[in-house]
Here is the input.
Amino acid sequence: MNKIKKIQKQLSKRFPGILAVEKEDCIELLGEVDKYETIVSAGQYVASTHLFSHVINDVRLIGYVPAKVRTPSIEDQALEGKKVDVLVIGGGVIGASILRELSKYQLSALLVDKEEDLAMQASSRNDGCVHVGLDLKKDSSKLYYLKRSRKIYPELCRELDIDYREDGQTVGFKSLWMKPFVSVYMKHKARVNRIEGVKVLSRKNLLKIEPNLSKDIKFGVNLRTAGCVCPYNLTIALAESAVINKAEVSLNTIVKDMKVEENKIVSVLTNRGRIYPRVVINAAGVFSDDIASMANDRFFSIHPRKGTDTIMDKSMTPYLSKTGVTIVSSINEQLHSHSKGGGIIPTIDRNILVGPDAVEQIEKEDFSTSRDSIDKVFNKHAETIKALSERDIITYFSGIRACTYEEDFIVSKGKWTTNIIHAAGIQSPGLTAAPAIGQDIALWASEELGNVPLKKDFNPIRKGVVPTRFLSDEERNEMIHKNPLYGHIVCRCEEISEGEIVDSIHSVIPPTTIDGIKRRVRAGMGRCQGGFCQPIVLSILAREEKKDLLDITKKGEGKVLFCDTKTKGEQHE
Here is the structure.
């Protein structure tokens, strides 16, 4: 029996109504079903057989009408006729990393993203963990790029002037009988994946690292080399570094269509005109399969997976050391979960983040949070540290992972279209793996263009806004003497000065919204979540941009803070 007949026989038993079609070394699923869970389960089952390289899942949900993709309202000809060597689609950490690597070569590069700022989706909606890769499969792309990138991180963050720490991470276990099995498994994985700094700890030794752990945790595993970084700061810094080195970024720019002739992309249509790239890089996150379709090169499918996190006030910081803690209740949970399991994670800025969970959903831009997800995540991890209390929650957020059915990265040249390169299916540990992914894709693009040489004048140094709260009194006084705005504290929770906000507004890739400033200097990220400082930030942004207060939005079009009912039609934020 050939493999397609074998798959179809099993599908008919498990998922009636779903048809399998062979497409070279891929498999395409067709049909209609009445539950979204069936679509996902069928794709996961076929991928688990490993009989085909990729799964293209085109099974439709009966009666489902997709939500409209958020699209910028701007329509102009700013990019009409623009010729560029490389076009990068996607302004997350992967696209920004690729753009910076491209800026090292003697070529022209343009990044486009449909949002009004960088890092608006997955790259601003995760915990910032730089993982060690203990849980990854030996031959996976995830592990390959993670291990290479971890060696790059310290120097890269120094060049970009952003914080990076390797404080470690701890996995706690609630059942003592699991210890022999966990010890063997962890040591085996550490040896196979060549991970250093993995150590199984008794409760006594675990408490030396995390003295406030609850009595329910019987033993643990410490991953000494795990790190953390701010994901949106990294994304913005990478893109700014690229722009310093003559790359370009066009925001509020959505790709609508592509013209493909003789298996080659000739042009790319956007809301700002038609672009003529020689090479296209697909780093579009949850929309990467849609971009691949436009390029006639879709050999994979993305199924969105939502994760919800809770952010705690910094008053909780003393109850957790520098390491993050993930709690595992069973061997099965450790071995078979598609999520890292969530945990209590200290971010690079010392907030405590609780979560996430992992929920399959059909929509690619549904960032809503549900009471069920919040309670499930919080209640699970409240058992880790008894001092954890809901009264210290300051906000929630959800992120959406761009998962393939193979549960691995797709970092490859096009299968049927010659001048496209994909960075797709980049879920966790995508943040960790971004630097090395950027290196490879930039190299492949240069090869496609005829082995473009490196620049001799590439400048690796990018300077960020100086955080005055970390300066000594003498250093801060010196800055205030030069510019009194550094002495005017706008955000009391995070101690952010007006000078820092103004500096961010006039940076290489300036923010145009309240949340854009928030991502760059943390104004509004404290306990009051902007309740005190937001009106002041609004007025500063309007003043510096020479705009009316009514034209300043919180996070883009349609998200205004208030409106003039006589002239404005948007909804109150």
Summary: The chain has 15 helices and 26 strands. Residues 550 and 563 are 6 Å apart (CA to CA). The longest helix spans residues 141-160. The mean pLDDT is 92.
